[in-house]
Write a structure and sequence with these properties.
This protein is an alpha+beta fold and 416 residues long. 31% of the residues lie in helices and 24% in strands. Helix 8 packs parallel to helix 10, helix 8 packs parallel to helix 12 and helix 10 packs parallel to helix 12. The protein binds uridine-diphosphate-N-acetylglucosamine. Uridine-diphosphate-N-acetylglucosamine binds next to helix 1, helix 5 and helix 6.
């Protein structure tokens, strides 16, 4: 599917089951390389980024099989072979292979990771952090060669909160001699999921979800069964889509516990939320209230939901101010929304001032990255008339089937 056609203006109604978390599944898949065993990941999302990671693990000799309830990962067979350039460059999360491959093979030679065009997305901190554990890096044309005959535990203080760097340190530190202590670790729920998984495999990691992590090095790991938690970003996407269309939806299995700030913002926008054991029941307002929002590392408001709230606030009552604090290029959808009649001004590329209009009008839109693409689909759902969103392959990196989900909620959408 490359294009979604949308007939807008229909409030979403019904229930939708929230898929497993992309950002939890990807580092967990990389973590499987640290053992010579079989693991089973229930609720693993069937999304393009997971398929790309599966392909990379298969190239390393692992066997991967989708079963009815999840993904079986067998890492007993393994070779430190070369990985296809395109697959590595195609996804940011290939960076998780760094820590895992250093642990399993003591070296790697890989292309730089690619990913969504939401900012510079440097890897300097990944390199620096792995160097603290004893890895050495060399630039080889477009590739990066790293070797670490002996990883050693270290004390690492992160200058800024980084999810990926924290995860890479964990992955490498497990194979190190001695313990590793991280100060300033990221606290995202996906890090807790990674550590829960690894601790079930026999690791000893303390402090996940806090700024202080302690990883015991050198323990043997075994395969396990693990259920990937529900995706808080997908749940947030459908929550704000319901607000934008003035609908009523039950977000089944939404991870309420990890959506505190998202829920607060939704309520500020005028939604009525019931948090139940089944998930979140949301009733959208007739028109979203304007808000002031700043993205921040967890437990702050997630940057991955910023463009989605921005799209919804284009029809808000009054003026909203949305500030992006994590990535420097996350307002790329603004010209697309302006094409639909939105009134948005971006200041210093970090702050968007949105003056709500009565209605958006349907348009031909181009998605250029994952969350921005989802935001454009939501804008199409809210708009009068027909919209067409291209670049659906970006959306499929993180949503199992956004078209099916919105269709089940009564939207008039079709994919081609
Ligand atoms: C992860 C998530 C992504 C989310 C982001 C922030 C995954 C697979 N992706 O991305 O969905 O948007 O967290 O919540 O989990 N930085 C550096 N140097 C580095 C690494 C990062 O300067 O070497 C900076 C980044 O540019 C950014 C900040 O650190 O400004 C935080 O980024 P980080 O938490 O590392 O994001 P990711 O792990 O790439």
């Amino acid at each position: 599917m490359e294009t979604i056609h949308i007939q807008g203006g229909i409030p979403l109604q019904g229930k939708v089951r929230i898929q497993g978390s992309k950002n939890a599944a990807l580092p967990i898949l990389a973590a499987c390389l640290l053992m010579e065993d079989v693991s089973f990941l229930r609720n693993c999302p069937r999304i393009a980024d997971v398929e790309a990671m599966i392909e990379l693990l298969q190239c390393l000799g692992c066997s991967m099989h989708w079963r009815r309830e999840g993904l079986e990962v067998n890492t007993r067979q393994f070779n430190c072979g070369a990985l296809p350039e395109k697959a590595v460059r195609g996804m940011r999360s290939s960076v998780f292979l760094w820590g895992a491959l250093l642990g399993r093979c003591g070296e790697f030679s890989l292309e730089y990771p690619g990913g969504c065009v939401i900012g510079n997305r440097p890897v300097d901190m990944h390199i620096w952090a792995l160097e603290q554990l004893g890895a050495r890096f060399q630039q080889e044309e477009s590739r990066l060669y790293a070797y670490a005959p002996h990883l050693s535990g270290a004390y690492i203080r992160l200058p800024i909160s980084s999810v990926g760097v924290t995860e890479n340190i964990i992955l490498a530190a497990l194979s190190a001699q001695g313990d590793t202590y991280v100060e300033g670790a990221a606290k995202e729920p996906e890090i807790i999921a990674l550590c829960d998984f690894l601790n079930r495999c026999g690791a000893w990691i303390e402090g996940a979800g806090t700024e202080h992590l302690h990883v015991v090095g050198g323990r043997r790991l075994y395969g396990t069964e693990y259920t990937i938690p529900a995706d808080r970003i997908v749940a947030g996407t459908y929550l704000f889509a319901t607000i934008g269309t003035g609908g009523r939806v039950l977000l089944e299995q939404a991870p309420v516990k990890h959506m505190g700030e998202t829920i607060r913002v939704a309520e500020d926008m005028g939604a009525v939320l019931y948090l139940t054991s089944e998930g979140i029941y949301v009733q959208g307002p007739s028109r979203p209230r304007s808000i002031r929002l700043e993205t921040a590392p967890y437990p702050g408001f997630p940057t991955d939901l910023q463009s989605i709230v921005l799209a919804v606030e284009t029809v808000g009552e009054g003026r909203s101010k949305i500030t992006e604090r994590i990535f420097e290029n996350r307002f790329r959808i603004v010209p697309q929304l302006q094409k639909m009649g939105a009134d948005i001004e971006v200041e210093d590329s970090i702050c968007a001032h949105v003056c709500g209009v009565n209605a958006l009008k349907g348009a031909h839109l181009h998605g250029e990255e994952l969350r921005g693409g989802a935001a454009l689909v939501i804008a199409g759902l809210m708009a009068d008339g027909e919209s067409r969103v291209d670049g659906v392959s970006y959306i499929m990196r993180g949503y199992e089937n956004i078209c099916r989900d919105f269709k089940e909620l009564g939207a008039r959408v079709s994919g081609e």
